[in-house]
Amino acid sequence: MSGKSNGNQSKNGEVKPWGRRFLRWWIIGVILIFLLVGSYMVGTVYENKQSAVTRHVQWISPNLTETGLSADDFNLSSNITPTKVISGFYVDRIKDLSLSDSVWTVDFYIWFKWNGSEVNPGENFQVIDGEIEKKELVDEYTNGTEHYQIYYVTAKITKFFDVLRFPVDSHLLKLEIEDKKTERENLIYVADNSTSNINPGVQIHGYSVEKFSVLEKPHIYNSSFGDPRIETRPTSYSQLRAGIDISRPDLGFYFRIFIGLFVAVAAALVALFIKPTEAEPRFGLGAGALFVAIANTIVTSGLIPKTGIMTLADMVNDLGLLLILITIVESTISLYIYDIRGEKELSRILDRISFIFLLIIYIIVNAVIVTSGW
């Protein structure tokens, strides 16, 4: 049968019309698969990035509303005069940050300046979504009705990191302080932006600090907590916030965790240059690459919390798995064309065209996914 097929092929190795049609539809099919998959991935990552930017801007802007906070919540009745407490932060060290455990630990100074004896901000402040591990009164003074206190605090804070864009992710670390006894109508923080800062020596493995912001916003609790002295209404507390913007400084971490996958993809593509009838090395490379890609997926998933969402890391891994699977399918088709149909030239052209198109498309889609999230 092989000899008969070779007889039907022209002497100069020209591919017959049906072969040219097959090559054309094969290329179109490969492009469509990667276009559909890539469009979904890029759209998901880009939408997440824009949503994160919007949330971060709302959170660090003292006059912008956000989820759970309306414009009316900023206003106080004209007959209410709360004690103004000038407060600020100096972030001294970020001891630990764990995406997989959803926590970060920070050492910071916080100070309070106020007049009067109606409030005690130093004694009563708490860290929202966190636990104070150490609280040390560093210094204090009183001059008549004027008071000043500064504390050194270590706090462990829970944060559910948005890891969809991992490993080219960026985050806003939120440090939120409230008085646990006094409502906003009696105590309101005034952010001391002129002296608040972050230690320039602060280091976070894998990230760089981009921006530091301090502000005050109301925090609304939709409950009176059963207090009979309070009418049934939401209660509002003044919240002093520090926001630390962090992001990946470069693509070093990205390449480090995907180098194994990229080598596996390269091996699967190189296998297309092996003669189709050499089944053991040709299919062996593809199968080995498949196992490496699966192992890489397992390793990268262990670096982040189990959220149930498809992250950018999952997308890159899945894209690699898809390409490797396509190379195995292509090898099967090429073997059939070469050995059963006897179209050796068509088989050779299919291998070369597949290598070129798969390599180019894979690089382009990967690059667009990364740039859309970074």
UniProtKB/TrEMBL annotation:
Keywords assigned: Membrane, Transmembrane, Transmembrane helix
Keyword Transmembrane helix: yes
Transmembrane regions: 21-42, 253-274, 283-304, 319-338, 350-370
A molecular function GO annotation: extracellular ligand-gated monoatomic ion channel activity
GO annotation, cellular component aspect: membrane
InterPro entries, sorted: Neur_chan_lig-bd_sf, Neuro_actylchol_rec
Positions in coiled-coil regions: none
Tagged with keyword Transmembrane: yes
Domain of life where this protein originates: Archaea
Full protein name: Neurotransmitter-gated ion-channel ligand-binding domain-containing protein
Organism, as annotated: Methanobacterium formicicum (strain DSM 3637 / PP1)
